Predict the structure.
Amino acid sequence: MPMIHIALRDGRISSINVEEGLSIMEGIRSAGVDELLALCGGCCSCATCHIYVQDDWSDHFTPPSADEDELLESSSSRLSASRLACQLIVDRHMEGLSFTIAPED
């Protein structure tokens, strides 16, 4: 299971192991990190799992789908590194992945 590192809103770093095949959102919720609301449960319909992927990891993922892009567009805190954690599936190559939980809108 890859270990990923989460910068929480208060600046603390939480490191968790996430099972391959789960979304980052599912891994965060399973680890008990409660800063990520993920209200839709991973259906890509709410943007409450908004994260900022560290720049050196952005090329690892496919570009956002039209639905993800539209949801991120509605966020006042969107950056070029913005993604929805429910749309990013963990694989064995993600050991050391780092990201920040975006501010709540």
Q: What stands out?
A: The chain has a mean pLDDT of 94. The first strand starts at residue 3 and ends at 7. Strands lie at 3-7, 13-17, 50-53, 82-84, 98-101.
